[in-house]
Amino acid sequence: MRAWPLLLVLVVTCSTRRKDVFPAEAPDAPQDASRDASRDASRGSAVRAGAELKRTGDEIIVCGRLFHTGARVVTWMDASGFDAYRPHRWRDPSQTAARDREGANRYGTRRRGLPVEIAEPVHRRGWKLKELQKVVSQVVVHYDAAGTAAQCFKVLHDVRGLSAHFLLDVDGTIYQTLDLKERAWHAGTANDRSVGIEIAQIGAYRDLETLGRWYAIRQGRAALTLPKWVSRGALPDHLYRPARQQPVRGRVHGVEYVQYDYTDAQYEALARLLATLARVFPNAPLDAPRTADGAVATRVIDDPLGFAGVLGHYHLTTGKVDPGPALDWPRLLQRAKAIR
Questions:
Q1: In the chain, which residues have pLDDT < 70?
Q2: Fewer Cβ in 10 A, N or C end of the chain?
Q3: What is the CATH architecture of 54-340?
Q4: What is the pTM of this model?
């Protein structure tokens, strides 16, 4: 009979140790700020009811959870953000549907074609990160042909009735318009399993005529000169210069185009965003479609929906040439891998 107290102690001790050996999530799994805060509270730290938990300003939102990027991020919930959830037009709040669509929404859900083991719980209570990680395997990079993030949102939301998860402005500010659990409308059949990024840039053309209206020599070097009709949003009034001073020529789908490069700030912010997405979504690695000699392809690839990684819009359809010949893929991917 005297052995019972000892047995009880041993059972409790083993139970406690088992929790330590088998944590609820793997140690290297991404953790959000709210979960860390609750754990601190359980350890007796001074967390007061009603205390504000402030973001640092570099977080993206995935299934309601926050993930640091190291770049400036403005979300749809911020005062200067772009909200793709809103049913009315950004510049004309009295109207709901975009001019080119009858419906009010500019996004959908990622529920099409899901396996039963994911579809049923998602339909019942919404997405969990571990489920979304099984679905998302692509990041599609676009240029917006609008010049600024504000102008891009105006065209996408008010005119075309489309959306992208992220808008990357000329100064490197990342605008997130939707939680990544949503299906943004940016890349046709790839929307179900991709994250969409629109980079603010006027784009690539067959000649220099259009570029001449958007770029000029300022203080001896090429600089972006925004037309007066372009919406700037919160973009500061600075000189924004392409990373390479001369226009870049290259072939997309076998046709030659010319384009100015993106800004250094855009390259750095995009690399940080891609590195973050690669960690959040392990099935979307930091690589792009390659040719036989190892160069990044600039045409539609075989089985584009079967590729896992980072794509340009031109990898998906012959009707698009973005992100154009100027995007420096080696620079972008090498930097993203270094950050990751």
A1: 1-45
A2: N
A3: 3-Layer(aba) Sandwich (3.40)
A4: 0.87
